[in-house]
């Protein structure tokens, strides 16, 4: 069965700290407290994800369903808050990097 997760490498703290900052701002802007039930569920799941990123010092495993929201948060941040294509590219690469987990049988 196909794995429904992806990993973000948080061994380098700086990109993950930046991602944490971006997500925190995005969550508070796009999903403010006291919104609809659906928005509150999304907010809660993103806050859990945010804490995982903040507290991780290794590989941070996440549900693939959250990847589009992460990409949206990064795009929103670098178009609205801090206009910088280079930083945006680095952050997006951190998210979309695929790690091969193929095993070689000998």
What does the model show?
By secondary structure, this protein is mostly helical. Helices cover 60% and strands 9% of the residues. The protein is built from four helices and two strands; from the N terminus they run βααβαα. The longest helix is centred in the middle third of the chain and has 19 residues, at 37-55. The protein is globular, with a radius of gyration of 15 Å. Residues 100-106 have low confidence and may be disordered.
Draw up the topology in text.
Blueprint: E1 5-9, H1 13-30, H2 37-55, E2 59-63, H3 67-81, H4 85-96
Antiparallel strand pairs: 1-2
Shape: globular
- Stretches where pLDDT falls below 50 for ≥5 residues? 100-106
Structural class: mainly alpha
| Major sheet characteristics | 2 strands, antiparallel
Number of strands: 2
Helix content: 55-70%
| Rounded Rg | 15 Å
Strand content: 5-15%
**What strand order characterises the main sheet?**
1-2
Kindly, what is the distance between the CA atoms of the first and last residues, rounded to a whole number of angstroms? 22 Å
**Helical run tally:** 4
Element-by-element helix/strand order: EHHEHH
Mean pLDDT: 81
Salient structural properties:
9% strand, disordered C terminus, two-stranded antiparallel ribbon, 2 strands, 106 residues, mainly alpha, 4 helices
């Amino acid at each position: 069965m196909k794995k429904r997760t992806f990993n973000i490498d948080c061994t380098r703290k700086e990109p993950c700290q930046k991602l944490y900052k971006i997500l925190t701002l995005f969550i508070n802007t796009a999903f403010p407290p006291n919104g609809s039930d659906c928005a509150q569920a999304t907010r809660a799941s993103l806050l859990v994800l945010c804490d995982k990123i903040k507290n991780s010092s290794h590989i941070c495993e996440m549900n693939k369903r959250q990847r589009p929201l992460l990409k949206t948060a990064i795009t929103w941040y670098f178009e609205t808050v801090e206009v910088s294509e280079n930083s945006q590219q680095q952050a997006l690469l951190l998210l979309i990097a695929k790690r091969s987990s193929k095993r070689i049988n000998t």
